[in-house]
Amino acid sequence: MPLARPEDREEARSWLDFTLRRLPPSVQRKLLARFGSPEAVLAQPLPTVRAEFGAEVAQALASPPPAEAVETALAWLGEARHHLLTLADAAYPRNLLALADAPLVLYVVGDPGTLGRPAVAIVGARHATPGGLENARAFARALAERGLVVVSGLALGVDAAAHEGALAAEGGRTVAVIGTGADRVYPAKHRALAHRIAEHGAIVSEFPLGTPAQPYHFPRRNRLIAALARGTLVVEAAPDSGSLITARLAAELGRDVFAIPGSIHNPLARGCHRLIREGAKLVERVDDLLEEWPDLASPGALVPPEPAPAPSDESDPLLAALGHDPVDFDTLMHRTGLTSEALSAMLLPLELDGAVVRLPGGRYQRTR
Predict the structure, then answer these.
(1) Is the domain of 282 the same as that of 323?
(2) Are residues 266 and 324 in the same domain?
(3) Which residue, among 166, 168, 173, has the nearest Cα to 117 in the 3D structure?
(4) Are 267 and 280 in contact (CB under 8 A)?
(5) pLDDT of residue 303
(6) Which of 45, 224, 254, 333 is deepest in the core (most CB within 10 A)?
(7) 345: containing domain
């Protein structure tokens, strides 16, 4: 959301005012689903909120965030290449809607359009071997040369090598999903790398500006890495590596998981070998990975996509499943084959956009 117009600034202010309040993200999503927009939530009489959501939620809504936090974020958004993507934005990456807890807002430095392009995640050990680092660079560069965006987490080791490999390709694009506020770089030694990523891709965070690095932030970051990509490649990983969390999340989302094998004497190969035993595809070359995606193999298949159609377009499968008559949630699950969590995550942005309304009795109806 570049703040080119006064109305953009006011919309950003509403989202910031709402999301920066001390409410769990799950409660924020329920409030938006119930009332439709941040402005509508904040305009609700407190007795109404208290009756439906309890006293703690009402108290949190009655306590606005520090004014300086909102103004600082708005000032940050006024700088070049700084963006706020919300669930109501057409540019919000559709792949993230597969998450039951898709972030309500994303802070982005760089080109938000990069988040919607075909992507592969490359993750692995922070203390990787020289061979592992070289593999990460080589695979990332080759994939970027084929037009894929390389997604990783800006960490030491394999993550940094993957970003560097993608940037070494002509026209290569890469995305760094971080576990701090978008105004911070962690680790600090990657500041120059982060600047290059923002110029040739994007840095993205769901955490408010100023958020420091905390251990529990990185598993949350990993789910975004897994969701943004069509598949995840693990280069080197110990059996207890956080990279295996990303691979597990990718598998749970129905994404492909790939692993590079290594020496049986290398402790950092054990995580990859475990993944292969559990069903990950063993890869030795880039073509081993790309043959899983024949739609991306032909020349021109990776041309950046056209902007997403408006939510009312019949090409949206969820709107097509809704039809034009009221339908209950269970029937919609049956028509789409989606889980309840995935269906809820996909309905919310349509409600926020006004393309779908929730009717009494838990039914839904499209409005156009």
Answers:
(1) no
(2) no
(3) 173
(4) no
(5) 43
(6) 224
(7) 317-366
Q: Do 116 and 259 fall into the same domain?
A: yes
The tokens of 316 are what? 């949206």
Query: In the structure encoding, which two tokens stand for residue 300, read together?
Result: 């021109």
Closest Cα partner for 118 from 247, 256, 229, 250?
229
Q: What is the mean pLDDT of residues 203-224?
A: 95
Q: Which residues contact 2 (CB under 8 A, 6 or more apart)?
A: 8, 77, 82, 83
Contact status, residue 40 vs residue 115, Cβ threshold 8 Å: no
Q: Where are the alpha helices (H) located in 146-292, listed in sequence order?
A: 158-168, 191-199, 217-228, 242-252, 270-277, 286-290
pTM for the whole thing? 0.82
Long-range residue pairs from 3-10, CB within 8 A, at least 24 positions apart, any chain? 3/74, 3/77, 3/78, 9/74
Amino acid at 107: Y
Instruction: With respect to residue 86, please indicate whether it lies within any of the assigned structural domains.
Output: no
211 and 267 together in one domain: yes
Residue type, 340: S
Same domain, 350 and 266: no
**Residue 283 and residue 247 in contact, taking contact as beta carbons nearer than 8 Å:** no
Last residue of a domain, one of 241, 263, 296: 296
Query: CB of 243 within 8 A of CB of 274?
Result: no
Q: Which long-range contacts (CB under 8 A, 24 or more apart) does 67-72 make?
A: 69/16, 69/20, 69/208, 69/209, 69/210, 70/13, 70/16, 70/17, 70/20, 72/209, 72/210
Average pLDDT over residues 28-49: 92
Residue 359 belongs to domain with CATH number: 1.10.10.10
**Structure-model confidence comparison of residues 343 and 187, the more confident one:** 187
Claim to verify: residue 142 and residue 290 sit in the same structural domain? yes
